[in-house]
Predict the 3D structure of the following.
Amino acid sequence: MRICIITPTDAQSRRGNWVTATRWRRILGKLGHRVVVRQRYDDEPCDLLIGLHARRSYPSMARFRHLHPDAALILALTGTDLYGDMRVGTQARRAVQWASRLIVLHPLAVGALPRGMREKARLIYQSVERPCGIPIHALQSFDVCVLGHLRTVKDPFRAAMAVRNLPAASRIRIVHIGHALDARMANRARREHERNPRYRWLGGQTRAAALRQLAGCRLMVLSSRSEGGANAIGEAATLGVPIIASRIDGNVGLLGRDHPGLYRVGDTGALRDLLLRAESDTAFYRNLLQASRRIAPLFTPARETRAWRSLLAESGMY
């Protein structure tokens, strides 16, 4: 079968949609299909179109549905779709209606869909290949990774703010990996790097380098205001890195409602308390570590491959 994956980002961006698209191309190729990744649909022969991001892939989906009214169309929903565009934009809602199936990346996402659309939703956990050569933790510092591009929706400086006035005895240090997507964010990151001795901004990294940095840290903080199901959670869990995260559906859906490291969005003090507790309370740190290990099996490549095979089979496409 010929499959075209539409993603609104390109390879140079290294954003989550491109990472997802290239991983799906690999999985679907191993299942025996011919797969291409494009930023837009240009009328090429295609048995199945898979769109990432309802609003930004809307023109491609509209064109495909016009040319192939009965063909299979799968839409993968992002956090922007679920918690923003679908509530205020007609294009995102129309794309959801056109889709034969909807992919969601965490269990609570189904509840964000219109009731008439929920039966089309299928959950696929984003898998992670465990890298080789995982580094050991630094002994002189308690490194905490923030992994994600500098975007407002990610609340990217919350961890930096939380460590500005820690006790002198604390060894906590924030290691921030991610591109600044505009000059304002880059300037703020540089200022924080210069003024905050506990904050290091490493900028954008290759995926392999980012995973090595994450593996060498004692914790990961995911401070987002909205998520559709962050790759970073699967990456940290696969690497055995404990997670502290904002209490939003996208994080709670993957981590579980009883995850010990959840805090209220934007609450710097609560995040600060969790970081200090993780550093000083061995039992609490062990609970965080066990929580990551418990969910790690959700993110295996074999599980994601089975989910895709099942989705294509039920749609009569495999």
